[in-house]
Amino acid sequence: MRTIQRYTIVATLPERLAPLGQIAKNLWWSWNPDATELFRRIDPDLWEEVRQNPVLLLRRVNQERLVRLMANEAFLAHMDRVLTDLRRYLEHSTWYAWVHGTETPNRFAYFSLEFGIHECLPIYSGGLGVLAGDHLKSASELGLPLTGVGLLYRDGYFHQTLGPDGWQQETYEPLDFTSLPVTAVRNGDGEQVTVTVSFPGRDVVARAWRTQVGRIELYLLDCDVDKNRPDDREITARLYGGDLDMRIRQEIVLGIGGFKLLCVLGLTPSVCHMNEGHSAFLALERMRDLMTKHGLSFAEAREVVTASDIFTTHTPVPAGNDLFPSHMVRAYFEHYAAQLGLSIDHLLSLGRVNQSNPGEDFCMPVLALKLSAYANGVSKLHGKVTRKMWSGLWPNLTEAEIPVSHITNGIHTRTWLSDEFARLYDRYLGPSWLEDPMDQGLWERVDKIPDAELWRGKERLRERLVAFSRTRLRNQLRRRGLHRMRVLEAEEVLDPEALTIGFARRFATYKRAHLILRDPDRLSRILNEPGRPVQLIFAGKAHPRDKQGKELIRHLIQLSGREDLRRRIVFLEDYDMQVARALTQGCDVWLNTPRRPLEASGTSGMKAPVNGGINLSIIDGWWAEGFLGDNGWAIGQGTEYEDLEYQDEVESRALMGLLEQEVIPLFYRRGADDLPHDWIAVMRASIRTVCPNFNTNRMVREYLERYYLPAAMQWHFLTADGAREARELVQWRDLVARVWHQLQIIDVSTGGQTEVPVGGDLSVQVKVKLGELTPRDVTVELFHGPLDSEGRILDGQVVCMSHQKQMDGGVHLFTGQIPCSASGDHGFSVRVLPWRSVLGRMIHSGPMTVA
Length: 851
Fold this sequence. Notes:
It is built from 30 helices and 30 strands. The chain is of the alpha/beta class.
């Protein structure tokens, strides 16, 4: 058979148009409307056909069109302006440089299994990836020395189509990397950089790619390499594809291979941030690297790595975390454990809550928690849920003291902001709002925007959404093979003047898309009330193996086919960032109905207010912080139920009641000028309260100031002078563990005080025998608070006691005072913890005595 040699013919950019290629390769263009419009001008139809991918656009555009653009002075001026803006952006001094300078060289690495930066780079599935993409964009705007690390999937995430009966079907489209905004990373010899990861009986090679996100470099690994055996070439085939064995291989490549790549490139980080537990193996590789290069023991390397690792969890239920059976981890890591100087059983214990239980699966978040000094949930409520969920790791601490905090998520405002509202903000807030979207004072100026202008902007977005939805619906009805008349009827669905409610997210059952569908007849009356029409637009994918989620989509599709509902309910297939922008910009109301407390954060609701949308949501995730009473609506009271069916019924009725009694009447209550002034007042409150607080510039600055910089200081402190401090810290831990049994609480005295007036203090003296330890090795604390009916301390607070003197027999006297600010029955306990301050961080993971 004749061998066919493949080749590709691509358009050649004339030298005068070469800047287009430079701009296309930096995803900065994706959040800059002027740059996006530049590419649209090249060929508007082709721009949509290539899913707004400028690299592919420039490969497929007609050469004659490029010649014509060469003679278009207006286009050339537009291109030069965008190039100048990009160069100014890249060269301009940044907030990080102004505030934190560059005297101490830091390098922060951010690892994530998915990144959602733009739909033209489909290596994301949903909120986790979009959050990671927004994190990089804000890190770029702030100027952080941060590098992203992920995987480059050949088939990306699946595309969703619906069968004739509404059942979700998944298709995968192989990606041509040469047509993506990624560039092969090459060494000095021009060869593509690779890293090697050891698997049982073989090595796996991964190629390195780079995509530029403003000032930030994102490195992506790809295992589709000829040297690899066929099943290993599939490691980076699909995001969240395959079985458990495929998942552990993906996570080994991400964590171990990703860290190796940074070292090869000379970008060894001082701080590593794990976005979910998928990349937790990187902590092991960091330790192995320190042991190999600097001669540290495992214990010494662990001190350094743990002090400079950060772990962010997004999962509020144990079942949602990655678990691997022990035999699988044993197979992949037995040889690796030896490189760490550990037995495989010791390594396995790092991923178990009960480290002595050989039957417990290996849990990636547990590994991350044990090897990170900083851990956080992604909303205040989620932080509380996470502390409760992982309390078994700290059995001697109360739930409130578990070292897991929270940093509430945000959105990258420019990415999700419509042109209409951007112009309004420029005009009335001033241009500086773009540079500092956290400035509350600037957002107060939203009150200066006239009602008419604010409303007209929202109307234009709703009209655009209706047109977008009709086009998408027409195309998907054709694909489903429906009758031509049904396809034509797509032009009649939705009303550009009707109250529009959006619901778009992953179709998992706990997100409860069905809550508004429980009573179809009541819903029909609401949607079709004469003079007050309402319409619902849904979008979202179910996981390929989630049959319940697929069934929910099918039920929705079948319901929307009813004669009385098919013009009022629309489901848009293949939810991606383009659909998300259209919906969050165009909807009047953003609906979110998770089963509390299962929504860790939920950033989609943050994207609506910046475009004049209003939230209608269960009090869960970020909305538990964002809802202030006048800036949207809360469904229910934040109650958590044991009877889930009863909960659905109660909250479904509450939702329908809110729509009937508050939301719809407010939208259609118009003044003499036909403007809904009361509705617009809620829009303003939504913008004013959500936008400055729930953005990724605020979020990334929090990570920097609370985690990144302290972690970097600890890295430098512990690694200085041949890691002298790390070595001493290990010696101290060994001492504490060896002699802790000598410690005794001899006496606790309140001087006979049993009643204390409000506003007074309860004085406590404690005598402690420390044995071979000194007062500098421990902290003695009073844990106090009101008592419940069973004599347990509620909402306990801590008072650190002061060392007063050493007494005979190695006994030490400590004193402290408990403030008594409220009446009632209170109690306290005394506890002694190991203490060693490392740049202000208390080391208390060792044993503890409580009296």
